[in-house]
Write a structure and sequence with these properties.
This is Protein Wnt. One of its GO terms (cellular component) is extracellular space. It holds the Pfam family wnt. There is one protein chain. The protein is α/β, with parallel strands linked by helices. 39% of the residues lie in helices and 15% in strands. It has 15 helices and ten strands. It has a three-stranded mixed sheet. Strands 8-10-9 form a three-stranded antiparallel sheet. The chain is globular, with a radius of gyration of 24 Å. The chain starts with a helix and ends with a strand.
């Protein structure tokens, strides 16, 4: 079993902010060497505008660059990755795995950055937009919301994806390309190219997250969602034909991961169709709580009292009792479904889980009513300058004019 607690450790607030503020290699991985997403350190201080984000969609298929491991100048080249490993909130075994291969530290860094950015993209139209900054993410990771399930899944998927890509790019000492496929009909084509080493990536992620003896509901749900993220990162078989005049006399095939943006979209669908396996509600705050120990006993007593009151009411007014909370020995469904145990807060007002939706940009005919929580929205007119009338010039550049136009911007009222 996978340890959701260990995943929570290196996805904590301090680690996320530290990774997003580090200069250098991460931007090269995403192919963003100019402004916008290229300036990773600016993500925390200057949240991205939606328009600029949409033009820089992550695919996960961007080519790896040669990422220098000595981004920390005070360290020598041979052990530069030790510093990054030590700054991550890793357990003893995880730190050892990080140190034994120079490529692991940068891969962990790329994985968490890629998953954080993809999460932000997938939820850009939602009340909770998976912000890249603040302590809200760390607080959500400690609960059992639908959003918690997505964070665990997208994070493990990002680690699996980044590790498989790092192997095929030659950045790891302990793995290379996927050269030994266990596939049917291999006689019909030749195995070639440099496939993404998904098998090694899956093994590494499971070893990295380790095992946990705790069998409580929350731990098992977290482990299940982490497993979903690993399993969804499966690869496709990509083939190339060889022959005279375009004929396909011989096919060379290799295993290639789905673009990470597609993985994020698939996980978003699982999030929208997620299943609730148990809940406990705090009547004072209206927010979900995890029922454990004394709190669980109080919850069971309260449910029994409510059932007695319902039996005294007329038959037509009775409501079906809520499903019982799964016990420690109950089975978690082994399906590709994201599970949660608590109802999410509304995310409309500022709280420890979000900064609310006041001043959020929305689209008038699309999502303003939902994002603004019925408070209405403000309309502002502004001038924007964008490239227009672009033409390709021989040989190798695009020439554009700069056009100015007015547009309306809608923001939620406070």
């Amino acid at each position: 079993m996978l340890d959701g607690h260990l995943l929570l450790g290196w996805l904590s607030f301090t680690v996320i902010v530290y990774l997003l503020n580090l200069p250098g290699p991460t931007a090269a991985y995403f192919g963003l060497r100019s402004r916008g997403w290229g300036g990773i350190p600016g993500v925390v201080k200057h949240p991205l505008k939606l328009s600029s984000f949409a033009t820089r969609m992550l695919t996960g298929n961007e080519p790896f660059s040669n990422l220098p491991l000595n981004s920390l100048p005070e360290e020598n080249v041979g052990r530069a990755h030790y510093k990054l490993c030590d700054r991550l909130k890793l357990e003893k075994k995880q730190r050892r795995m990080c140190r034994r291969d120079p490529g692991v530290a940068e891969t962990l860094r790329e994985a968490i950055t890629m998953s954080a950015q993809e999460c932000h993209y997938q939820f850009r139209f939602e009340r909770w937009n998976c912000p890249l900054e603040g302590r809200h993410r760390a607080n959500i990771l400690k609960r059992g919301f639908k959003e918690t399930a997505f964070l665990y899944a997208i994070s493990s998927a990002g680690l699996t994806h980044a590790m498989a890509k790092a192997c095929s790019a030659g950045r790891m000492e302990r793995c290379t390309c996927d050269e030994a496929p266990d596939l049917e009909n291999r006689k019909a084509w030749q195995w070639g190219g440099c496939g993404d080493n998904i098998k090694y990536a899956n093994k590494f992620v499971r070893d990295f997250l380790g095992k946990r003896s705790n069998k409580d509901l929350r731990a098992r749900v977290d482990m299940h969602n982490t497993n979903v993220g690993i399993k969804i990162s499966k690869g496709n078989i990509t083939c190339k034909c060889h022959g005279v005049s375009g004929s396909c006399t011989v096919r060379t095939c290799w295993r290639q991961l789905l673009p990470f943006h597609e993985i994020g979209a698939n996980l978003k669908l699982l999030y929208e169709n997620g299943s609730k396996v148990g809940s406990s509600t705090n009547e004072a705050t209206g927010e979900g709580e995890i029922a454990t120990g004394r709190r669980q006993q109080q919850q069971q007593q309260q449910q029994q009292q409510e059932q007695q009151e319902q039996q005294e009411q007329p038959q037509q007014q009775q409501q079906p009792p809520p499903p019982p909370l799964p016990g420690p020995n109950d089975q978690i469904p082994r399906t590709m479904t994201l599970l949660h145990i608590e109802d999410s807060p509304s995310f409309c007002r500022p709280s420890k889980y979000s900064s609310g939706t006041a001043a959020r940009t929305c689209y008038k005919d699309n999502n303003c009513d939902a994002i603004c929580c019925g408070r209405g929205h403000n309309t502002q007119s502004r001038e924007v300058t964008r490239p227009c009338q672009c033409q390709v010039r021989w040989c190798c550049y695009v020439e554009c004019k700069q056009c100015t136009q007015r547009e309306e911007v809608y923001t939620c009222k406070g």
